[in-house]
Amino acid sequence: MFTLVMLRKIHIFILVLMTTLSAWSQVTNTQGQLLIKGSVKGMENRVPIQGVQISTDKGAYATTNGLGEFSIRAFVGDMLIVEGPELETVRHRIKSGEDIDILVKGYDGAVQQARQKREIANATTNLADHQRFLDSAEVYKKSDLEKSIDFIARSMEPLGSSGNKREFSASLRLLGEIYLYHEQYDLAITNFKDAMEAQESNRTKLLLGKAYVLNGNFESAVSILEPLVETKNMVPYQRVELFETLGDAQKELGILQRAQEYYQQGLLIAEKNQISPKEIDLNSKLADAFAVEDRTLEAEGFYQNSLDLSKKMAPERFVQESEKVADFYNQKSRYEDEIQIRKRNLNELKQMPRSSVASVGQGISNRDTITSQRINYKIANAYIAQDKLDEAIPYLEKSIVEADKDDDLVVQKDATRKLSEVYKNKGDYTKALESYQDYVAVVDSLYVRKEQEISRAARFNREIANTQNRISSLEQERELSQSKYSLAVTEQQLYEETSKRQKWIIYSLIFGIALMALTAFLYYRSNRQQKLANNLLALKSLRTQMNPHFIFNALNSVNTYIAKSDERSANRFLSEFSVLMRSVLENSEEDFIPLAKELELLRLYVKLEHSRFSDKFDYDIEVDQEVDVDAFQIPPMLLQPYIENAIWHGLRYKEEKGFLKIKVRQITADMLEICIEDDGIGRKKSAELKTSNQKKQNSKGMGNIKKRIQILNDMYKNRVEVSISDLHKDQTGTRVSLKLKKQ
User: Fold this and answer.
1) Is 723 helix (H, G, I), strand (E, B) or coil?
2) Which candidate in 290, 404, 411, 426 could, as Cys together with 295 as Cys, close a disulfide (CB 3.0–4.6 Å)?
């Protein structure tokens, strides 16, 4: 009640305060200030002058429109300053709120018209220069990274003062594409984002999503691309690329079914619009996705589709797809099929012109994969996998020779090392040594080359960084020009008025937000306390339901001894049972107790049950040495119901003697696992034997446990995790796994 009254008072106070401050700011702002209107014209011909800068000595600012008119906030006594290009500066003291007509000497309307024409001509020239440099960057995009980036920078220079968002966005997008092609993914992402800030487009979003995928930012790719699925104005090719990229991201995230759905949607659009290259790509990617799931038949079907489609296009593309299929056969240990395909690819490469062979690897991540030396190397590996060493040697030798001829030191190194290993396995140690010496020589050459490449890469990265900084400076210049323009337009009408008003509004908002934050905090604290009280009440209720259930079952054991006239055993059982019950009652009000204490209770309970059902089961309680039982806390009586179920519903009905195993082991420094395993009749068989009343009671007991764990996890940040499964494949036995986090 108090909280509600206090909240109402706070809300009323905030409303009164904000109304008062707003009204006061209006009065303060307008008191004594005048809105001065006027015009600027040429003295000789009375022609209105556009673009003249009007300011006061107090900082107010305005610009004349196309009719030479202006309006500005000022006070009586302020100095009005009129200035502009090719104009003589005029100063005028404000004496009243009357309109002002300002005449300037020496103005000729033709001068302004000529200036406007020059500005239009310069803007047209700038745009033409921009497009010309952009086209040059496109030409050098794949062949010369340094040149293409330089042309991008030059394309942006003419736009520095114009602030044209569309042209800037085009330059930044092409720069991102250049970085993307040359695998500079971080820089590509940065420039695509900048292009999006300048002007959003579906094309830029698609490129940004692709860059995210290539850079391993799969969640970011999905978040930016999924909204585009609902876009209606996309051309078919862009929509195919959208579904393909989304499929790539989902596949890498391990969501294979979703990836397959996206690939198939893209494939339907590609087939409908006869986009053959994308048909091949999507069939191949669908095959890859099914292969990951070991769905061999589906994978082979889509691979065959990609082969059939690529065979109709160009030999280069057919070889690419064939190599993918060969890799698939290699993964499935179908080495003969793999060898057959790769030999066919070797023949295809021999029949291609040199220029075509060089382009075979284009469009794939590892561009030097499809070469004759690498294919020969893979054929040799397939023979080695089958222990056909003699067949592997000629292909390794061919691979070495061809790699040496093409200066491919990486393949030459791998093939030479593999040849040495083959000779060693054959027992020809002389040739093995010779091959190994050749391998060492190639490694030395490769090391020297890598050092040179690293040096060149470092120099080139510095040059790229300098160019990127230059581009960033141009972008900042554009943003500054836009800011100045926006500021001039804003100051024309609102300078003095808004400055004071905003100040008071900000103060009032800060105060209001502070009060609202306080109110929200009080409400949150009250709600949290109420939730805690409700949880504690629920826990107490659940414990009161669990304890009689435990007592009832334990007393059944005593009753059994009494029925058998075994007074000694009954007295012993009652003595141990009283110790157990005392500990249970002591801990019944606690949410958590030390694990060591819970294990003591557990040992005593299992001992009592075993004394009754000694002919039905044996047991073992195992605690790993590395487990610090004093460092962990566990809800009291949490394990007992699961052990009780194992004995009463699993082991008790087993014909032969069963076994109950309880094991405590450390998983991590902050987590341990408690496993309760029995080799009883299993959950399915037990359910079949239960009466309707037993099913109801068991369901209620397990339900209480689940509710209790749920409440405790909500209160203590997911400290307990329980899973139940069959111990054996024939659905006999039961395994309960309880994972406990350290507080």
Assistant:
1) strand
2) 290
As given in the structure block, the two tokens for residue 35 are 């809105």
Residues in CB range of 34: below 8 A, 6 or more apart? 73, 74, 75, 76, 94, 97
Q: Which of 87, 107, 127 is the last residue of a domain?
A: 107
Which of 654-679 are b and which e, b meaning 16 or more Cβ less than 10 Å from the residue's Cβ? Answer: beeebebbbebebeeeeebbbebbbb
| Distances, alpha carbon 11 to alpha carbons 5, 7, 23, 458, 515, in Å | 10, 6, 19, 62, 9
In a domain, 716, yes or no: yes
> CA-CA distance, 352 to 344, in Å (whole number)?
13
DSSP state of 97: S
DSSP state of 628: -
- Pairing outcome for strands 100-104 and 34-42: parallel
* pLDDT tens by residue, 122-137: 555 566 777 888 888 8
Count: domains in the chain: 2
- H/E run at residue 63: strand 61-63
Residue from 329, 268, 269, 270 nearest 299 by CA: 329
Tokens of 549: 């259930």
The residue out of 83, 107, 131 marking a domain boundary is 107
Main-chain dihedrals φ then ψ at residue 660, nearest 5 degrees: -110, 125
291-295, 493-497, 614-618, 642-646: segment of lowest average pLDDT: 493-497
Nearest alpha carbon to residue 348 among 370, 364, 381: 370
Q: What is the CATH number of the domain that holds 102?
A: 2.60.40.1120
Name residue, tokens 């109950």: 660
Residue 654 lies in a domain: yes
Residues in contact with 207: Cβ distance below 8 Å, sequence separation at least 6, in sequence order: 173, 176, 177, 180, 188, 192
Sheet holding 90-93, edge to edge: 61-63, 53-56, 79-83, 90-93
Amino acid at 198: A
The tokens 């790993």 sit on which residue?
624
Q: Which residues of 283-322 are buried (b: 16+ CB within 10 A; e: fewer)?
A: bbbbbbbbbeeeeeeebbebbebbbebbeeeebbbbbbbb
Residues 6+ apart with CB under 8 A from 124: none
Residue 69 counted as domain residue: yes
Nearest alpha-carbon partner for 638 in 539, 718, 736, 708: 708
pLDDT digits (tens, 9 = 90+) for 224-243: 999 998 888 888 998 999 99
pTM: 0.47
CATH number for 718: 3.30.565.10
In angstroms, the CA 511 to CA 501 distance is: 16
pLDDT digits (tens, 9 = 90+) for 596-629: 888 888 888 888 778 777 788 889 988 888 888 8
Contact 591, 599 (CB under 8 A): no
Which domain covers residue 78, as residue numbers? Answer: 34-107
Cβ-contact 587, 597 below 8 angstroms? yes
